[in-house]
Amino acid sequence: MKILITGASGLIGKALQKSFAAKGYEMLLASRREPKDTSHIQWDADTGFRDADLDRLEGLDAVIHLAGENIAGLRWTDEKKKAIRDSRVFGTRSMIETFDKLKAKPKAFISGSAIGFYGDRGDEEMTESSPAGKTFLAEVCKEWEAESRRAEDLGIRTVLLRTGIVLSKDGGALATMLTPFKLGVGGVIGDGKQWMSWVSLDDVVGIINYVLENENVRGAVNNTAPNPVTNEEFTKTLGSVLYRPTFLPLPEFAVHMVFGEMGDALLLDSTRVIPKRMNDAGYEFKYPELKSALERAVV
């Protein structure tokens, strides 16, 4: 297979590169920098690909589009929120416009999305057929997915990966949590009842490989483990895995004060997501339970 990856330098992108290299796939890695070798190609979310490079994009088996502004940070300013939205919406739009120029279009377009699509939903279980929420991230995901679906109009099989909290010590939410937990100052956030829909990095890669290799998979796919947990359970399990106490809570008012809207979205919102399509397809999760997933992630 010949596969183009955007966001290849990120946590998921790096893991995919290892997986695809082991399978002998040919990879083309898109980034803003000048290409350093033939495995790289220049791409920018605002301007897309250079016309001189279009021939290199002919006849791709798949495009895996993961690029987007990091949503984490101390606070979401108006400028940060604009960057989060525009990098995803305009970046995907430029990708589809490039596809339209090609004679031999990609066979599959696997586009990133997130469980933020569902917003803050309390104890309600979300499947791929559940409606979008009304938060900022939900609105971004709706626009992002709408742009991605334009690939379907070009006859390209399109998959929307609604990815949850990826467990890895090398990046993402868990990497941020590890330092306070290892110091023994980790604890429940808010009342601890909010649901966290997590997934091991191994299963993120496994699910992407599954949808890449199974042509019948189209549309939204919840890229999460089958057993979401509350923040309280996540906290206790992580403390147990690290052999550290978890008695110092982070109250809701402190989250608001320190992190603002970003804290509400990433730390307090409750999203209980079930990967129904992967369950129905018979995908076998490598780490369906949180404790084993965390043990794998922190080694």
**H/E element string?**
EHEEEEHEEHEEHEEHEEHHHEHH
| Count of helical regions | 10
Number of DSSP strand runs: 14
Uncertain segments:
none
Strand content is: 15-25%
- Global structural class: alpha/beta
Describe this structure in words.
With 299 residues, this protein is α/β, with parallel strands linked by helices. It contains 10 helices and 14 strands. The chain has helices at 11-23, 78-101, 136-149, 172-182, 201-213, 231-242, 252-259, 261-268, 276-281, 290-298, and strands at residues 2-6, 26-31, 40-44, 48-49, 62-65, 108-114, 125-126, 157-163, 165-167, 195-196, 198-200, 219-223, 229-230, 272-273. Strand 1 (2-6), helix 1 and strand 2 form a beta-alpha-beta unit.
State the gist of this model.
The protein has 299 residues and is an alpha/beta fold. It has helices spanning 11-23, 78-101, 136-149, 172-182, 201-213, 231-242, 252-259, 261-268, 276-281, 290-298; strands at 2-6, 26-31, 40-44, 48-49, 62-65, 108-114, 125-126, 157-163, 165-167, 195-196, 198-200, 219-223, 229-230, 272-273. 39% of the residues lie in helices and 18% in strands.
Features:
299 residues, alpha/beta, eight-stranded mixed β-sheet, 10 helices
Strands, helices and their partners?
Blueprint: E1 2-6, H1 11-23, E2 26-31, E3 40-44, E4 48-49, E5 62-65, H2 78-101, E6 108-114, E7 125-126, H3 136-149, E8 157-163, E9 165-167, H4 172-182, E10 195-196, E11 198-200, H5 201-213, E12 219-223, E13 229-230, H6 231-242, H7 252-259, H8 261-268, E14 272-273, H9 276-281, H10 290-298
Parallel strand pairs: 1-2, 1-5, 2-3, 5-6, 6-8, 7-14, 8-12, 9-11
Antiparallel strand pairs: 3-4, 10-13
Helix pairs in contact: 1-5, 2-3, 6-10, 7-8
